[in-house]
Each structure stands twice: as structure tokens, then as C-alpha cells.
């Protein structure tokens, strides 16, 4: 059902909403986009498609009840929102995509744009949507998630909110508005509705049950599209109501805020970090030097007595648990991610299994991990870290990185094929999609795999 909301805010009352709307409607037009932005958007698309397919084979993608706290959260959302079958599919696609822990990362905004942007695109777009329309929607959603994330963070995270969930509402609204060819005023209004929904406690982080964040991209996707289409519903426990985005951002502004460094003209999509391992982004700062130490010194897991790591305070607050009841729990536990790499010398999406969680060396090493939060506070430092291995004989090996490498652009196609295989997509179908994107000759129907 459609609704009309009469409490419209004027431009002078909400500068952020209208700035974002201007970027989406006026600036992001295919003919105006630099070639490097278009190329990065299509690399981003390939990564997101791979994660979406692989997400169908993860625990949440298969609908497995792997954590009671997550099951309870999903049940509460379904009972509150009463999603349509189409909305529930979008929820499942987005949460499954995110659950691979291989989506791209906007470090400055501390969020994962393709976990929302790609599923919304595939669920909202018309089959005849052209390459140009697809790229515009991808860039719009990514830029909005990046910029709202920069305005809110890192204080948003320090105050206990999940940035991908909160920012994802705005990103989903941007994608939907671009696909529906909304005007600047309509798009600004959608962002104001998104701001009214973004303070739902669904997007709160839980230090005791960090895995429940995996539902947030799905919840945010449905909420953001509802804001764009103005569909009346009890969305995330709140009626659609316009809220000044300026005021919403202001509630999180403090001395930790990044907003002073925002550049409204910059294409933040160019700065995305592509993960190479299916773990929390910040873990790359520990696992990359660990991998090098293991290979260079031929260290066997049985010889490791203790591991000490230091990395950013934000992830260390939420992902330091020494227990992992599920595969996703291991992917979001630094001690278990470290232990699995130490045992297998590999960290691919297929490496994280229930069997490896039961391995005695993995459990022992995970228990031995000592985490020291870094004094670094900037979002650029999220992928900086250091590690020290202590062997049973007393030998010590150490390593550090100031900026993890992640997955290089040239390796994204190989990553896509790996994800497609994990998700059960046959090789021929995967190659067809890759070739369509590489040849720049595709519409939305070509991407529905």
C-alpha cells in the first residue's frame, strides 16, 4: 500500500539529505562517470555477484538454525515487519551475501556496500535494465553508504551500532531511487524516511552474540527500499516518518567523528577494500602477516604455544570471543580465524567448516590467543595490526602490517569463480556472466544467476 507523508523537510532544514540526493540524481549519470569509476563499479558487481551466489551455501543462506540468538532476531523481525515473499527473498539474498565475509569494505565508512547494493539491484531492477542503469545504481548505492558512513563513524561503532545495517538503509534507498528514476526531492525524502528507520534497535551490535549482525544487511535492504517506494508497513518496528538526516547524523557526532574529512565530490567507490579471506575485514591485518610467518619459517600448528595480536579497538571489542558455535561464529572470531589459518595454512571460504572447528589444535591455539587493542583509532587503521608467535620451544616470530593488502583487482575474477563454485553455480554459467561483464554487454537478466 502506498502512503503520503506530509511532514516534508525543506532543503535548508536538511543539508545532508539534499546533498546526497544531488549526488544520486544529478552527478551519477553514466555519461558523466569517469572510466575508472565505471571499471571499479563492474569489479564491485562481480565481487558482489560471487558473494550472493556463495551466500546461498552458507549457514544463513541455507536457512540453518545455527545460532538461537540469530533465529530469535529473525523471528522478531518477521513478526514485526510481516515481509512479503519478495521482501523476504531480498532479506535472504542480502544477509546471505554478507555472511560470506568476502564483500567489499568502505574503510572510512566502516561498511560493506555490496552486501546491500547488489541484492537490492537484482531484486528491484527490471530485466531490461541496461548496463548504464546498473552501473548508475551500483555507484549511487555505494557512494551514499560510503558518505553516510563517513559522517557517522567511527563514533557510530563506538556507540554500539552496526554500520552496514544503519548505512545500508540509505544505500538501499539510493539504489531503489536510481532504478525508479526518482526526482531529487523524492530522493531526499526517501533519505529522510530512511533516517527515521535507521535508529531501530535491530542494528545494535551485541558483544555477547556478535553473529546476529549477519541479519542486518537484509533487514536494512527491505527498510531502504520501503523508504524509496513509501510502502506503508511497520518497518523494523517503526512507522515511516521523515527525520532530518542532519539531526540523525548529529546524534553520533563527537570527537571521534570522521565528518570533517568528508569530500562530497570524491568517488569513494575507488577506495573500496576487496577482502581476500572470509573473515572480518580487520582480521586481514593479523592473518596476512601470520600467513607469511607460517610459510617463511615452516611452522607447524602442533608447535605453536601462544599467539599475541594487536589491532584496532573497534573489532577487538566485538570479535575477540574464544568460542565459536558455528562456521560464521569462527569467521567473526579472531582467535578462531587465527587458529584455523595456523592449522591449515589457508583461509578460503571452503576452509571454514564444522569439522575444522572440532580440531584439537584449532581449539588449543584459539584458546591461546591474547588480544591487545591498538591505540590507533582512525578508520584507516582498521587494516593495521601486529602478531607474535611463541613456539613450544620458546622461539618467537613476529610480523606486522600498516595496511593489509586484501585481494588485488586482477585477482577479483578468480575470486568470483571460487565463490561461484562454493555456491554451486556451474562453470559454464559463471563464465557466461563473467564474459558478459568483461565485454561490457549485459543487462539485468544476464546477471540473475
What is the topological layout?
Elements: H1 15-27, H2 35-55, H3 68-81, H4 85-99, H5 114-124, H6 131-152, H7 155-158, H8 163-179, H9 184-197, H10 216-229, H11 245-250, H12 284-297, E1 304-311, H13 313-318, H14 327-331, H15 334-344, H16 354-357, H17 360-368, E2 369-373, E3 385-391, E4 396-401, H18 412-422, H19 427-438, H20 444-447
Would you write up a description of this structure?
- The chain is mainly alpha-helical and 449 residues long.
- It folds into two domains: 11-271, 2-methylcitrate dehydratase PrpD (Orthogonal Bundle); 281-401, 2-Layer Sandwich (60s Ribosomal Protein L30, Chain: A), CATH 3.30.1330.
- The chain has helices at 15-27, 35-55, 68-81, 85-99, 114-124, 131-152, 155-158, 163-179, 184-197, 216-229, 245-250, 284-297, 313-318, 327-331, 334-344, 354-357, 360-368, 412-422, 427-438, 444-447; strands at residues 304-311, 369-373, 385-391, 396-401.
- The chain has a four-stranded mixed β-sheet with strand order 2-1-3-4.
- A hairpin with a 4-residue loop joins strand 3 (385-391) and strand 4.
- Helix 8 (163-179) runs parallel beside helix 10 (216-229).
- It is globular.
- The protein starts with 14 loop residues before the first helix and ends with a helix.
Amino acid at each position: 500500500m502506498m502512503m503520503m507523508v506530509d511532514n516534508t523537510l525543506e532543503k535548508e532544514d536538511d543539508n545532508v539529505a539534499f546533498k546526497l540526493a544531488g549526488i544520486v540524481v544529478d552527478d551519477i549519470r553514466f555519461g558523466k562517470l569517469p572510466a575508472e569509476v565505471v571499471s571499479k563499479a563492474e569489479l564491485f558487481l562481480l565481487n558482489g555477484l560471487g558473494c550472493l551466489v556463495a551466500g546461498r551455501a552458507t549457514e544463513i543462506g541455507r536457512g540453518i538454525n545455527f545460532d538461537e540468538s540469530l533465529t530469535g532476531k529473525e523471528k522478531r523481525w518477521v513478526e514485526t515487519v510481516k515481509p512479503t515473499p519478495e521482501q523476504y527473498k531480498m532479506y535472504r539474498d542480502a544477509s546471505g551475501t554478507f555472511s560470506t565475509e568476502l564483500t567489499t569494505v568502505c574503510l572510512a565508512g566502516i561498511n560493506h556496500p555490496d552486501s546491500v547494493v547488489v541484492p537490492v539491484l537484482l531484486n528491484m531492477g527490471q530485466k531490461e535494465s541496461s548496463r548504464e542503469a546498473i552501473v548508475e545504481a551500483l555507484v549511487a548505492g555505494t557512494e551514499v553508504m560510503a558518505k553516510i558512513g563517513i559522517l557517522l563513524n567511527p563514533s557510530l561503532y563506538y556507540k554500539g551500532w552496526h554500520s552496514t545495517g544503519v548505512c545500508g538503509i540509505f544505500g538501499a534507498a539510493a539504489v531503489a531511487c536510481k532504478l525508479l528514476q526518482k526526482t531529487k526531492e523524492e530522493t531526499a525524502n526517501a533519505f529522510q524516511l530512511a533516517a527515521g528507520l535507521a535508529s531501530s534497535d535491530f542494528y545494535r551490535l551485541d558483544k555477547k552474540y556478535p553473529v546476529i549482525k549477519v541479519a542486518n544487511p537484509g533487514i536494512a535492504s527491505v527498510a531502504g527500499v520501503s523508504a524509496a517506494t513509501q510502502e506503508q508497513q511497520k518497518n523494523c518496528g517503526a512507522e515511516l516518518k521523515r527525520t532530518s538526516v542532519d539531526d540523525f547524523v548529529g546524534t553520533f557526532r563527537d570527537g571521534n567523528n570522521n565528518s570533517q574529512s568528508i569530500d562530497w565530490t570524491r568517488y569513494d567507490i575507488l577506495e573500496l577494500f576487496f577482502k581476500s579471506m572470509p573473515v572480518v575485514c580487520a582480521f586481514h591485518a593479523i592473518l596476512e602477516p601470520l600467513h607469511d610467518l607460517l610459510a617463511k619459517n615452516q611452522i607447524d600448528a602442533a608447535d605453536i604455544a601462544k599467539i599475541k595480536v594487536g589491532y584496532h579497538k573497534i573489532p577487538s571489542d566485538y570479535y575477540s570471543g574464544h568460542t565459536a558455535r558455528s562456521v560464521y561464529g569462527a569467521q567473526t572470531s579472531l582467535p578462531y580465524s587465527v587458529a584455523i589459518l595456523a592449522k591449515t595454512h589457508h583461509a578460503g571460504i571452503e576452509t571454514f567448516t564444522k569439522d575444522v572447528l572440532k580440531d584439537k589444535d584449532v581449539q588449543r591455539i584459539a584458546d591461546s590467543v591474547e588480544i591487545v587493542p591498538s591505540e590507533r583509532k582512525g578508520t584507516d587503521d582498521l587494516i593495521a595490526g601486529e602478531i607474535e608467535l611463541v613456539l613450544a620451544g620458546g622461539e618467537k616470530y613476529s610480523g606486522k602490517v600498516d595496511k593489509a593488502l586484501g585481494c588485488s583487482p586482477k585477482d577479483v575474477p578468480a575470486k568470483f569463480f571460487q565463490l561461484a563454485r562454493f555456491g554451486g553455480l556451474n562453470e559454464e554459467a559463471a563464465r557466461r556472466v563473467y564474459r558478459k561483464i568483461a565485454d561490457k554487454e549485459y543487462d539485468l537478466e544476464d546477471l540473475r544467476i
